[in-house]
Design brief:
About 70% of the residues lie in helices and about 0% in strands. The protein is an all-alpha fold. The protein has one domain. About 10% of the residues have low confidence.
Amino acid sequence: MSRRWAGLVAGSVVTVAVAGLVPAGALEGPTIKEVMKVAMKGGLAKKVASGQASAEQQRELVRLMEALAANKPPRGEASSWESKTAALIDASRGVLEGKPDAAEALKRAINCKACHDAHKGE
């Protein structure tokens, strides 16, 4: 019993020590770059839009699109960012919920050029 207690205390000390070293905001969620790497360049969004993704992959895309929306774009109007990310979220949720035409809406929302022209930094 004392070994278990000692392990719990040691684990707590390490957690507190590491937490003090993590910069504020580092645990908030994926950055735009991280979302792009998995969802867009990694092909997850296209896989979901094509109907070839599992329910878990669909949930992951919804999570990533919500994280994308929580980020601030490097440039451009906030209203444009909100509109574009809302379309991605709505369409990815629609696919997950099995809504008709959601896959087509997701294909339209995955418009790299439109978003990059408006918001991608240098």
